[in-house]
């Protein structure tokens, strides 16, 4: 057992492949490694390690994808004129702001989650926004974020040691203790090859709308908040 190193191992975690001897050790290893115990169906497997079990797993995964896609295509919401009209209006308004907004078919998680709206009276977007703090392994979802709000104001409840919530402050301690000049906001560039992932660096002093102009957005923006002094594998466009 790789947790207690005392008993003979009986189980192996499908996710991280750690050996365990009992339910107690299984729970301990999940807690220590933040492991959910669910096998990663899209994890890379080298040809040398590829077995019949991997082949069967991939086949079943493709079957699940086919069933999900078929069910989504049959969903009544897909063919609803109201839904199509709202999405067309949303994309059209975004295009006028020089934002290439793209929506996914029904059945995709981001499509279900997205709560972005456009207020015709105020002529303003209220965005569904996801903030990712990779150095703290934390994610936060914001709803109804006005497009004229600056990124600095959006991040204050998370990175400002005075204005942030005590629980959030403790979890994002590495961010709140760092100077604001060290905080960098990145957004992934869509439609690039998997082996050529790049990020755009955003300007915290400018509004959300200004930062989104000229960019491709799939459903809603996802912002990655990183620290310049810490090494990360996110390559900014141009570097």
Automatic annotation (TrEMBL):
UniProt domain HIT-type: residue ranges: 1-35
**What keywords is this UniProt entry annotated with?**
Isopeptide bond, Metal-binding, Phosphoprotein, Ribosome biogenesis, Ubl conjugation, Zinc, Zinc-finger
Q: Which InterPro entries match?
A: BCD1, BCD1_alpha/beta, Znf_HIT
Q: How does it assemble?
A: Interacts with FBL, SNU13, NOP58, NUFIP1, RUVBL1, RUVBL2 and TAF9. Interacts (via HIT-type zinc finger) with the RUVBL1/RUVBL2 complex in the presence of ADP.
Function of this protein?
Answer: Required for box C/D snoRNAs accumulation involved in snoRNA processing, snoRNA transport to the nucleolus and ribosome biogenesis.
As for family, the record states: Belongs to the BCD1 family.
This chain belongs to which protein, by name? Box C/D snoRNA protein 1
Q: Which gene encodes it?
A: Znhit6
């Amino acid at each position: 057992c790789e947790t207690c190193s005392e008993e003979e191992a009986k189980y192996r975690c499908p996710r991280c492949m750690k050996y365990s001897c009992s339910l107690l050790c299984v729970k301990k290893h999940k807690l220590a490694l933040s492991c959910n115990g669910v096998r990663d169906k899209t994890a890379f497997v080298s040809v040398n390690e590829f077995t019949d079990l991997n082949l069967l797993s991939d086949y079943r995964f493709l079957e699940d994808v086919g069933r999900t896609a078929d069910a989504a295509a049959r969903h009544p919401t897909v063919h609803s004129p109201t839904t199509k009209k709202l999405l067309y209006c949303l994309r059209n308004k975004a295009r006028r702001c020089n934002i290439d907004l793209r929506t996914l078919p029904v059945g995709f998680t981001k499509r279900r989650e997205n709560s972005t709206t456009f207020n015709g009276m105020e002529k303003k977007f209220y965005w569904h926004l996801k903030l990712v703090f990779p150095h703290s392994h934390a994610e936060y979802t914001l709803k109804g974020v006005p497009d004229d709000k600056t990124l600095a104001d959006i991040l204050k409840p998370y990175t400002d040691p005075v204005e942030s919530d005590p629980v959030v402050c403790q979890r994002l301690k590495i961010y709140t203790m760092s100077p604001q000049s060290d905080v960098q906001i990145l957004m992934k560039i869509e439609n690039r090859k998997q082996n050529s992932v790049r990020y755009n660096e955003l300007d915290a002093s400018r509004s959300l709308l200004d930062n989104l102009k000229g960019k491709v957005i799939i459903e809603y923006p996802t912002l990655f908040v990183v620290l310049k002094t810490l090494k990360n594998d996110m390559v900014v466009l141009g570097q």
